[in-house]
Amino acid sequence: MQPDIRHVLHLDLDAFFVSVERLREPSLIGRPGIVGGLGDRAVVAACSYETRRYGVRSAMPMRLARRLCPDAIVLRGDWQHYSQYSEAVTEIITERAPLVEKASIDEFYVDMTGMEKFVGCVSWSADLKERIRRQTGLTVTWGLSVNKTVSKMAASEVKPDGALQVVGSQVPGFLAPLDVGKLPGVGEATAHTLRCMGVTRIGTLAQIPRRLVERAFGKAGIKLWERANGVDRSPVVPLGRQKSYSREMTFHTDTTDVNLLRSTIERMTELLAYELRQGGWCAGKVTVKIRYSDFQTYTRQITLPPTAIDRVLIETALKLFGALYDRRLLIRLVGVNLSRLVRGTEQLPLFEAPQGPSKARLLALYQGMDQLRNRYGEGVIGRASSYHLHL
Length: 391
Description:
Distance between the termini: 46 Å
Helix content: 40-55%
Shape: globular
CATH topology of the largest domain: MutS, DNA mismatch repair protein, domain I
CATH architecture of the largest domain: 3-Layer(aba) Sandwich
Number of helices: 14
Strand content: 15-25%
Order of helices and strands: EHEEHHEHEEHEHEHHHHHEHEEHEH
Number of strands: 12
Strand order of the largest sheet: 5-6-1-7-8
Radius of gyration: 23 Å
CATH class of the largest domain: Alpha Beta
Structural class: alpha+beta
């Protein structure tokens, strides 16, 4: 067991997308709501707690969700609006916290180690929770413990609008009775394997010799065993060290239309480049993913000098797609990921290549386009070859 010297806070906004929609339209309060695509092939991005009583969950196929809760109101959602609320919460947290990690659009970690000498961690967390509610109208659940794993699990146990501290001496007793599926990093396949082994509770997993868990699950078994025993050495990564930007598109109908596939990748990459520049980043790696109709998934990636120029990133993404799509079978999904982020803006070369527009002219063009997007939304302008796609 790790010594009880760290104080890590996990903050999780409650049913975030649905909560934002309710702030915009109060008549939705108390009614079952689902945010996600409107087609049958779409998936649930978020759902209210009213729908969860019927078994609806995030990432569930929309068709199944509608069947489980036919009275649910399905909302397409507005990512730009959610991002604005997320940034508002981020500012509230970072104004007061020394070390913050934004794990996702609605989850945060705060390393409070050392703060206990000056403020009570529980009272500070409670005050932050109330400040978020007062300034944004959103409720948040928090868990406070010795590391990221336990604090996240503590928050999950008291949602929505809850708060729970699990001190070091309480960690084994807190984890032991919980289902193994609640352990972070345990997916459906791993949980199924554990249950087939007769392991249904985290406490049982923690008592199995480490070498046996490693033998069953490989190197991943080591981390699995450590988490079951309340051990997690992963640090809180400071805000600003974002790992990647990504987008995916699941088609309503599986397709082999190469023009559609290329246009989709082009449009996604263009919008990702815009997000890069808004965050003040350049990307040094591009990854393209495709998923065939039989759910076989493949990726290919390439590193390049850090850039936020649409043309460079799009050309790279299309090149990767051309090398990746060699089976000529129906495609279900395509995705683009930009990573190896470097803080800063594009560096202009001393001498431009003779062919094509200069980097300086391209950056001036993108700056003008970004200003239009900032004012009227990201869909207001785009490349003619892919602008017709609404992603």
